[in-house]
Structures are given as structure tokens and as C-alpha cells.
Write a structure and sequence with these properties.
Layout: H1 7-20, H2 30-41, E1 48-51, E2 58-64, E3 72-77, E4 96-98, E5 101-103, H3 107-119, H4 121-126, E6 133-138, H5 148-157, E7 164-167, E8 175-179, E9 181-190, H6 205-225, E10 239-247, E11 257-266, H7 271-286, H8 288-294, E12 299-308, E13 311-312, H9 318-327, E14 332-335, H10 341-348, E15 352-354, E16 369-371, H11 372-391
Parallel strand pairs: 3-6, 3-7, 7-15, 8-14
Antiparallel strand pairs: 1-2, 2-6, 4-5, 5-16, 8-13, 9-11, 9-12, 10-11
Length: 392
């Protein structure tokens, strides 16, 4: 494929290409992966595909430079959140530039970062790296960091493990050394349907689910009162909420099913699951016996729907010091939103930080955009990483 010669124009072209692929998480990302592989092939680079069980999704692990030495990872995901129900001024899958801002679904979260990394490949090849740079391109991050896990399990098997990873979620190029973990649970209430005229003979699944929702809210308020002593967090306490509720079939039927999805984002490494486990135990002790007393077939089923650990990279870790040097700044922070960084550390024992162009305030919104100036700052970061790796 023919690419513009200037770096900013290369970034624009690659971002336009990436945005044009509708990679909402319920769809295949293979056409986008094909496109990236074709681009890399023009430089004599072949990546390693890690395909999911359906054959419809794939991650890509790419090594530029020597494969027998530990290097650094630039990591980004290819999936985006849906646009349905959002009021866009532009076609969300066609890049539009206005006043230094590039509009399109995924421009900030996080195809802009992937485009920058790909745009810098010619410089990586020309530098004849002594320390390798890896590109880790994943899928289904938005629905629970799904695709990066099998890729990291493969990386963990390799003889040489990377020195560190830079995960390019939008931080306005600030170095992020920590984020909360997350644990999500689905509670399915099984009641007993009856005509609403004889409602006392039924078991109302929604009403028992409401008891759980009220308890979740009570515990959320209690968590908010316990402020972390770690002032680096933008939201300085663990959070808990009910996010999705489904139940009922008709106004005149006692509902026999209701599902409640809830999550905890915890500051502590294991806190998220500890909080949700306690809620499950409470519901089994306080709500389910009352349901079964009405009818033995009634009760609650619980299933884990999402889980990733917190990230807590030491402020004096080598990867943090390097990230600050490459970014040309000396500050660091922690954030409430989750990323794949904690899985790099947890699964493959790769020290990680989060640093990328754009603001999290733009992620998932209609008229999502990233500023061209942010992408150029990110390109400068990668340029300095290339120089660092060229020295060995």
C-alpha cells in the first residue's frame, strides 16, 4: 500500500484506515488484522496471530528487532464500543478532521495510539534495533480484556520475556502507574409466575432482586466513605454499582425471572472480588431462603461475567523511570478505569504502565475525537523509545 512520506500524514492515513473498520466488540476484527498484516509485510515484518475459538477474532504479536533479547511492548486494542443510540455529527466510521481534531469511533480509545505505533514502523526498521520493540494488538478489551489473555499466555511461554510494556489507553501522555481492578457478577433470580390477580401465590423475582439492588447501593455508600490514603487516585475510593437489570414479561404476570448485573472497582489488588463475594454470600443467606420458603424451586444463580486485577506498578520501577524519560515529564498518577496493563503484569510478569494520546473524557462518547497534537506527542514518545532501543 502507498503511504504518505510525512509522519503526521502517515498517522492520519493509518488512523483513517483503522477507523473505517467497524470493530465493535460483537463483530469480527479479522479484516482489520488482515490490513495491519499487509501493512507490516511491506516492511518485511510478519506477526504471530492468536485466533480465538470462534475463528472470528485475532490478536497480533509482532517483533521488530532481535528475537533473542528482551525488549519493550507497545500495546493497544482494536475493538470499539457501539455507536447505536448516540447522536453523531459525522459518520463514526469515517475519519473527519476539524480544527486539529480527528473525529471517529475509536480515535481516542484507542486506534489513535495503534495508528501512531504503526506509523513509526519505518523508523523502527531503519534504526536496526539492538533491543526489540513488540507490538501487541488485541481484541475485545471493551468487554473484559478478553483477547489479550490468550496472547499473554503465549508470550509467557517464550524463552525471552519483555522488559516492560506501554499500554496506550488515553492519558494525555501522562504516566499511569496504577488503576483499579474490576469484578462483575450477574445474579439471576428464579421466581414463580402467576396471573397478577393472584399475585400472592407467585414469587416475584423482580421484587427479590430489588432487595439485592438496595443492599448494593447501601454498600456502595459505605465504600465511598472509606477514602484511600493514596492521593494518586482520581476517584479515591472503591466503587460499587448495579448496572443492568432485566425482568418481567407483562404487566399482568408475576415475573418469574430477573437478572441483575453489578460490579465493583476496587483499589486493592483483590478488593473487587472480595466485595462482590461478600454480596453474593449475603444474598444467599438473606434473600434466597425467603424465596425457597415460598417455593423450593425458587432461588438465585450467580455467575462471574468480568474480572481483571488492579495495576500497582512501583513508582520507582525501571519501566516508570523510562516512561517518564520518553514522555519528557516527571509526574505520574493512578486512574479509576481499567486497562490490559494489569494483565501484562499478572499473566506474563511484564512490568507495565499506561500512557497514550487523548483524554478518557472523549472515550465512548458521540463525536469521539483525538487531537492531532496528542498523536504527535505520542509519536515523539515512540521516536525516543526507538532511539533508546537502537543503543541496546
Amino acid at each position: 500500500m502507498t503511504m504518505p512520506s510525512s509522519r503526521p500524514d502517515r498517522i492520519r492515513k493509518l488512523l483513517a484506515d483503522l477507523v473505517s473498520f467497524d470493530t465493535v466488540s460483537d463483530r469480527t476484527n479479522l479484516p482489520l488484522i488482515d490490513h495491519i498484516e499487509s501493512y507490516l509485510a511491506a516492511f518485511g515484518i510478519k506477526g504471530e496471530r492468536i485466533v480465538d475459538e470462534t475463528g472470528e477474532k485475532a490478536s497480533l504479536w509482532v517483533t521488530i528487532g532481535p528475537e533473542d533479547r528482551p525488549g519493550f511492548v507497545l500495546s493497544g486494542h482494536t475493538d470499539v464500543v457501539p455507536v447505536v443510540g448516540q447522536d453523531w455529527s459525522y459518520d463514526p466510521f469515517k475519519l473527519v478532521e476539524r480544527d486539529g481534531k480527528l473525529y471517529g469511533r475509536g480515535t481516542t480509545d484507542m486506534k489513535g495510539y495503534v495508528a501512531v505505533c504503526l506509523a513509526m514502523v519505518p523508523e523502527m526498521v531503519e534504526a536496526r534495533l539492538k533491543t526489540p520493540i513488540h507490538l501487541a494488538i488485541s481484541y475485545d478489551e471493551e468487554i473484559g480484556c478478553v483477547g489479550v489473555r490468550p496472547m499473554l499466555h503465549e508470550v509467557a511461554k517464550k524463552r525471552v520475556r519483555p522488559l516492560g510494556a506501554f499500554i496506550g489507553e488515553p492519558t494525555q501522555m501522562q504516566v499511569i502507574i496504577g488503576h483499579k481492578g474490576k469484578h462483575g457478577v450477574r445474579a439471576t433470580f428464579h421466581g414463580l409466575a402467576r396471573h397478577s390477580s393472584i399475585a400472592p401465590d407467585g414469587v416475584n423475582a423482580i421484587e427479590y432482586a430489588a432487595d439485592l439492588i438496595v443492599e448494593i447501593r447501601r454498600r456502595a455508600v459505605a465504600l465511598a466513605a472509606v477514602r484511600s490514603t493514596d492521593s494518586l487516585y482520581d476517584v479515591p475510593h472503591s466503587t460499587l454499582l448495579t448496572s443492568i437489570v432485566h425482568g418481567g414479561a407483562a404487566l399482568n404476570i408475576v415475573p418469574d425471572t430477573c437478572t441483575v448485573d453489578f460490579e465493583c472497582r476496587g483499589i486493592g489488588i483483590t478488593e473487587s472480588k472480595e466485595v462482590t463475594d461478600a454480596i453474593v454470600a449475603w444474598a444467599k443467606a438473606e434473600i434466597e431462603p425467603a424465596m425457597k420458603a415460598r417455593h423450593p424451586d425458587c432461588g438465585i444463580d450467580f455467575e462471574e461475567i468480568l474480572d481483571y486485577p488492579a495495576l500497582d506498578t512501583a513508582a520507582d520501577a525501571a519501566i516508570v523511570t523510562l516512561a517518564k524519560s520518553l514522555a519528557g515529564r516527571n509526574d505520574h498518577a493512578k486512574v479509576a478505569f481499567g486497562t490490559e496493563a494489569s494483565l501484562f503484569a499478572d499473566i506474563a510478569d511484564i512490568p507495565s504502565v499506561v500512557i497514550g494520546p487523548g483524554s478518557i473524557a472523549q472515550a465512548h462518547t458521540p463525536d469521539e475525537f483525538v487531537e492531532m497534537a496528542e498523536l504527535e506527542k505520542c509519536a515523539g514518545f515512540v521516536e525516543r523509545l526507538i532511539a533508546h532501543c537502537a543503543k541496546g
